[in-house]
Structures are given as C-alpha cells and as structure tokens.
Design brief:
The complex is a heterodimer of chains A (312) and B (39). Chain A is an alpha+beta fold and 312 residues long. Chain A has ten helices and five strands; from the N terminus they run ααααααβββββαααα. In chain A, a hairpin with a 6-residue loop joins strand 4 (211-216) and strand 5. The model of chain A is unreliable at 1-31, 103-157 and 238-268 (pLDDT under 50). Classes of the chains: A alpha+beta (312), B mainly alpha (39). The A-B interface holds A 46, 49-50, 53-54, 56-57, 60-61, 63-64, 67-68, 70-71, 74-75, 77-78, 81-82, 84-85, 88, 116, 119-120, 123, 125-126, 128, 130, 133-134, 137, 140-141, 144-145, 148 and B 2-3, 6-7, 9-10, 12-14, 16-24, 26-31, 33-35, 37-38. Chain A: Keywords: DNA-binding, Nucleus, Transcription, Transcription regulation. Chain A: Residues 131-140 have a biased composition (Basic and acidic residues).
C-alpha cells in the first residue's frame, strides 16, 4: 500500500496559501514532515487494529455459530421431553383430557409467542429483547409448574349434590331458582325418565366450573331433581341482597345452598356477622359500665323505680 | 471508515452472542424444570 502519496496529498490540502508565497519558512516544512510521519504511524496502527478486529469478529462469529447449534440442540431436546411429558400426563389421566385441552392450547400459544424455533433456526435474535424473553420464559415456567396442581385441584373439588325442588307439573321450563345465574347448553331425553333433562352452566363459566342438571323426578313428577357438580368460586348475585324479590326467589335456594358448596360460604358469612354483632355489643357494654355517670344514672333510675313500687 | 464498520459489526455480533448465551441458559433452566417434573 502506498501511503506516502496519500499522506502527501492530504498534507497539501492543509497548506496555507501564504506559505506558498514564502517558501523560505523552513520550520513550517519541518513541521509538515513530522506530521506526515505521525499519520503514517497512526495509519499502520489502524491497519493492525483492523486486522485484530477482523480476527476478533471471526472468533465471535464462530462462537455465535456454536451457541446457535447448542441452542438448537437444547430446544430439540426440550420439545422432545415436553411432548413426552404431555403423553405421560394424558396416559395418566385420560378422563381429564377435556379439562386439559384449553391448557394445552394456551401453552401452544405461549410457545408461538416465544418464537424460539424461528429465532433459533435462523440464529437471528435481533428482533427479540432479552428482557421479554426472560419474562416469557418465566411465564412459561409458571405455566408448566402450575398446570398439574391446578387440574388436580379442580378435579378433586368437583362435588356432586342433588336437590329436590317442588314444581308445578304444568311447568316445563325445568328452571330451579337458586340464586345463581345459569346458561342452558343442552337438553336430552333419557331412557329411565320420560321427562327431558336440561343441562346448565354457571353464568361465570369458564372461570366457574359448576354445572347443573335438572330433570323432573320419575318417581314423583311434582318434584324437580337438580344435580349440581362442582363448587362455585364466587358469591351468588342475590346471596346477600336484602330486597324482597331475591328473598322470595331464594325460597328454594336455601335448600340448594345448604347442600351445595356455596352454603358453606353463606354459613361462614352469617357466623362472621353474628360474631361481629356480639363483639360490638360487648364493646358497648364495657364502655357504658366504665362510664361512672351512666352507672350513677342507672342506679338512681332503678332505686327511684324501687321506691315508687314500695310506695304503691 | 473500514475500522469503524468493523467495530460496529463486532458490537452487533457481541450483542447477538450475549442474547444467545442468555437464551441458552434459560432453555437449560426450562429443560431442568421439565426433567424435575418427570422425576
């Protein structure tokens, strides 16, 4: 590389026109020579650093390649293990397949969100920030760790209770007023009973898992048989309202609530209210007895009453 | 200009390297979580 010519040209560009008029100013020329040497040295240093940079770049690139390959391998193993685990879970609980379907779908969505196969396959990760990845991984971990206990829990908590409610034989609506709102999702005729059976879901579904089946009793057609499956995870809309309509509407409700899971919550709430009232009464009594004026007034009133009684 | 371009490229590749390392660590963690679930 011929650097000197380049350097000379650049130096010429910096020359002052006044210097050309006075070429006898040698010190300036000397300065020019020393500057060109410095720049030449710098250029050489730059050249060396460029080659070092290239080497470093090659090294990091090869490291990146290795990392990408390792990541792809780990991903393959991870997904293989994941599918194996899912297979095992589905074998262990075939009856819970329907319950697990939404969870699986959600997990697939999370995988799609993570976008690992795409990012890893091409080795391009520029579009995803590490914080987001970390957050998504945390979510995924939580999802994976929470999945089984949640399903098992809801499965274990599925309680079945039956309630008999008197109903007019002319009423074919199969409606049982129990304080909760229901959505009918099906009706069918069963072999053992001439009356159809209606299927309801709680209006809070899918967050609330409770289902209800209502059918007129085969033995006594004046009764409706309501079978509840599961426990409400919320309060009924009319549970604590004091209006007359809800009270009237919940005449059969009491039966249902006591038998169903919501009854426990209602009883607990009533107990809490009772305890609160007791505490309030005790506080009032203690504050009154501490008040000497009140005690004196009470004593005077009682003694006055006694004196009046003795006079008469 | 060549040097600055090289420096920029090196920065980019280094950042990519860092992300890949983080992702690899996370994937290893996830893999271990799964393995524990199986065990």
């Amino acid at each position: 590389m011929d650097c000197s010519s380049f350097l000379d040209i650049s130096l010429d560009l910096n020359t002052n026109p006044f210097d050309r008029n006075f070429p006898d100013k040698l010190p300036k020329k000397e300065v020019k020579v020393s500057t060109s040497a410095d720049l030449e040295r710098k250029w050489l240093v730059k050249d060396e650093s460029a080659s070092e940079l290239r080497e470093e770049l090659n090294r990091v690139n090869s490291e990146n390649k290795k990392l990408t390959e390792m990541l792809a391998t780990v991903c393959e193993k991870y997904y293989a293990l994941h599918s194996h685990l899912e297979k095992l879970q589905s074998r262990q609980s075939p009856e819970m397949d329907q319950t697990e379907q939404p969870t699986k779908k959600r997990k697939q969505d999370t995988d799609e969100l993570l976008g690992f196969p795409i990012g890893l396959g091409s080795g391009k990760t520029e579009n995803s920030s590490s914080n987001e990845d970390h957050h998504q991984h945390e979510q995924k971990n939580q999802l994976l760790s929470c999945k089984r206990p949640v399903v098992t829990d809801s499965f274990n908590k599925a309680k079945i209770s039956t309630v008999y409610v008197p109903a007019d034989s002319s009423d074919t609506s199969l409606t049982v007023k129990d304080g909760y709102q229901w959505r009918k999702y099906g009706q069918k005729v069963t072999r053992d009973n001439p009356s159809p059976r209606a299927y309801f879901r709680c209006s809070f579904a899918p967050s609330c898992p409770v289902k209800k089946k209502v059918q007129r009793s085969a033995e006594d057609p004046s009764l409706l048989v309501a079978t509840y499956e599961g426990t409400h995870n919320h309060l009924g809309p009319n549970a604590f309202e004091g209006d007359a309509t809800s009270q009237v509407g919940s005449s059969t409700v009491t039966l249902d609530l006591v038998n169903g899971g919501g009854g426990h919550r209602l009883a607990l709430e009533k107990n809490e209210r009772g305890t609160m009232q007791d505490v309030l009464v005790q506080q009032m009594a203690s504050s009154l007895t501490k008040d000497s004026k009140f005690t004196a007034a009470l004593a005077a009133a009682i003694s006055g009453r006694l004196l009046e009684q003795s006079r008469t | 200009s060549t040097t600055s371009a090289l420096v920029d490229e090196l920065k980019r590749v280094n950042a990519e390297n860092k992300k890949l390392t983080e992702m690899l660590t996370l994937m290893c963690d996830n893999y271990n979580v799964l393995r524990k679930q199986l065990m």
